[in-house]
Amino acid sequence: MKLILCLTLLASLAQPAEMVTTTDGIFTVIESVAPLGVALTYVSGGNGLTGIADTWPLDCGGPAAAASAYDHCWLQFPERIIWKAPSATDSVFAIPGVDHDPIPYENLEFIIWGSDDGVTWEEGKIRAIYRDGFDTAATTVGKSDDYTSLWGFSKSYVYFSTEGETHFGTGIPGPDEGEIDALAMNTPEPSTWMMLSAGVLLTGLLRRRR
């Protein structure tokens, strides 16, 4: 049994890391679940077409319901969709709504924008790509959240939008419409929290010593 476990571990270590080429650079897929925070709230937009997994279309209760949680109920948008974050943030996760091949192209067929007022927008840039969004078990097309992408901005925003286009850098033309499961806040990694906590603790000790 121990021998089998060791061989399995060695086989996994021997597998080359997956690289994804985007218009924002070449990224090594992070083989873990994205640290998703609270889902952003749907404000407006889209064409009202929604679906679950491999079905097209299927009523999920309207665009607001489809964008309300990480539930595989994708929302389609030839028109721009506006979202609102619970607080200002400089990075958000885009959880793909996938219902067909090619993969990972369809997982990146959108651009995320950020805004203070919903009038002036900054185009986001991909910072990282994670293997899983929220569902680590599903592997079939339409039921997985593979290639969940983290998008960053030069400053913090409250409003975000998704627009049908592509950041998949292989020369494939951008679509007129895209599909997305949800936008989510970025939750800092545990190491980041530990560094912040250590900094606060050190500051407190220095003040007390003075």
Given the helix and strand composition, which structural class is it?
alpha+beta
Architecture, according to CATH? Sandwich
| Oligomer designation | single chain
Shape summary:
globular
CATH superfamily: Galactose-binding domain-like
Strand content: 35-45%
Would you identify the regions where 5 or more consecutive residues have pLDDT less than 50? 1-12, 191-204
- Under CATH, the topology is which? Jelly Rolls
List the helices and strands and how they pair.
Elements lengths: L1 H13 L4 E4 L2 E4 L1 E4 L2 E4 L1 E5 L4 E3 L10 H4 L6 E4 L4 E16 L13 E6 L5 E3 L1 E8 L15 E17 L14 E8 L3 H20 L1
Parallel strand pairs: 3-11
Antiparallel strand pairs: 1-2, 4-13, 5-8, 6-7, 7-13, 8-12, 8-13, 9-10, 9-12, 11-12
